[in-house]
Amino acid sequence: MSLADQPKSSLRERKKAKTRATIQQNALRLFHEQGYADTTVEQIADESEISPSTFFRYFPTKESVVLDDDYDPVIIEEFKRQPKDYSPIQALRGALKAAFSNFTVVERAAVRKRMELIMSVPELRAASLNQVSNTVNMIALMIAERVGRDSSDIEVLTFAGAVIGAITSVLYYYAQNPDIKIEKAIDDTLLQLEAGFPL
């Protein structure tokens, strides 16, 4: 299911998710038409028929409207659903396949536009690197729970860092090659990681 279709969400949560998606879609369109630097929060808010203060309730900064998404909880839930006998990387591959298989056409287009912006705007690229530690910690927590180890274990953290590095490389490649099937590219890369990255 797409993020907007999750059945456990209340009506209020679904409205918030819809507003958030609308803000992000309008922002990405304006960034494409006018350029990131020349687009203001006020313009995004106006296009979204909200006030600037409402914008900041959904996104703390202009950068975050590009960098933030709601996919982490979906991936975490899919990861927990994977068979217990799967290795961590098999479980992660299964979780990502399940999450990607439910992306709508609009969600896929938004991911591509966001990656294109992150690649082309220096301040967004720098800000995305600042988010890496949060994502590594998220992956480390998922893996640690599955294997019964501490998330601060150096081997767990190294594994999480390798996974994020591999996925980030694919996302950057996707920004420049939008015709690839991103879910297959990520799965192939994780499979290569599982095999020890033979070249």
How would you describe the overall organization of this protein?
By secondary structure, the protein is mainly alpha-helical. The chain has two domains: 1-62, Homeodomain-like (Arc Repressor Mutant, subunit A), CATH 1.10.10.60; 69-199, Tetracycline Repressor, domain 2. It is built from eleven helices and no strands. It has helices at residues 11-34, 41-47, 52-58, 64-67, 71-81, 88-101, 105-120, 122-130, 132-147, 154-176, 182-194. The longest helix is centred in the first third of the chain and has 24 residues, at 11-34. The chain is globular and about 50 Å long. The chain starts with 10 loop residues before the first helix and ends in a 5-residue tail after the last helix.
Topology:
Blueprint: H1 11-34, H2 41-47, H3 52-58, H4 64-67, H5 71-81, H6 88-101, H7 105-120, H8 122-130, H9 132-147, H10 154-176, H11 182-194
Helix pairs in contact: 1-2, 1-7, 5-6, 6-11, 7-8, 7-10, 9-10, 10-11
Keywords: DNA-binding, Membrane, Transcription, Transcription regulation, Transmembrane, Transmembrane helix
InterPro entries: Homeodomain-like_sf (IPR009057), HTH-type_TetR-like_transc_reg (IPR050109), HTH_TetR (IPR001647), MftR_C (IPR041347)
Organism: Gottfriedia endophytica
CATH architectural arrangement of the largest domain: Orthogonal Bundle
Rg over C-alpha atoms, rounded to the nearest angstrom: 18 Å
Report the CATH superfamily of the largest domain. Answer: Tetracycline Repressor, domain 2
Given as residue ranges, the uncertain stretches (5+ residues, pLDDT < 50) are 1-7
Oligomer: single chain
**Which percent range describes the beta-strand content?**
under 5%
Pattern of helices and strands: HHHHHHHHHHH
Q: What general form does the structure show?
A: globular
